[in-house]
Amino acid sequence: MSVRRLDSTKPIIEIIWEGIVSPEHVEQTNTEIQRIAEQLGNSFDVLVDMRNMKAFPQDTKEKIVEHQKLLTQWGMKRASVAVGGAIAKMQLNRISKESAHQTEFQWETYDEALAFLLK
């Protein structure tokens, strides 16, 4: 897992989810995102790389729903996600519905996801 502000003229926070993501990973990620969001004036886009992630365990899935709601509260305008497998994509769609997250766009590759935000 990693979180950072992308070196870009646009305010973009990159989140990389890898392997099996625990609820603690989500909490750590939220703390870092909140700090960066404040630096960006609470207006930013999010680039998510899920290509090397396994499906979210049930306890983590609940934290991800909360995570998506928090991102919106902290000023996220839109999310661009590089999704790996079909299972992760289906799960992400379900999570987005539960969190009422309407500004998420999914892509096959990281480059496509990044290009969308840089337009």
Keywords:
globular; 119 residues; alpha/beta; Transcription Regulator spoIIAA; STAS/SEC14 domain-containing protein; 5-stranded mixed β-sheet; single chain
Description:
The protein is α/β, with parallel strands linked by helices and 119 residues long. The protein has one domain (2-118): STAS domain (Transcription Regulator spoIIAA), CATH 3.30.750. Helices cover 47% and strands 29% of the residues. It is built from 4 helices and 5 strands; from the N terminus they run E-E-H-E-H-E-H-E-H. It has helices at residues 23-39, 58-73, 86-99, 110-118, and strands spanning 2-5, 12-19, 44-53, 76-83, 104-107. Strands 1-2-3-4-5 form a 5-stranded mixed β-sheet, sandwiched between helices. Helix 2 links the parallel strand 3 (44-53) and strand 4 (76-83). The model has no long low-confidence stretch (mean pLDDT 90). This is STAS/SEC14 domain-containing protein. It comes from Paenibacillus xylanexedens.
CATH homologous superfamily placement = STAS domain
- Determine the structural class based on helices, strands and strand pairing: alpha/beta
Uncertain segments: none
Order of helices and strands: EEHEHEHEH
Rounded mean pLDDT score: 90
What's the helix count?
Answer: 4
Task: Fill in the CATH topology.
Answer: Transcription Regulator spoIIAA
Distance between the termini: 26 Å
Sheet with most strands: 5 strands, mixed
Q: What is the number of E strands?
A: 5
What global shape is seen? Answer: globular
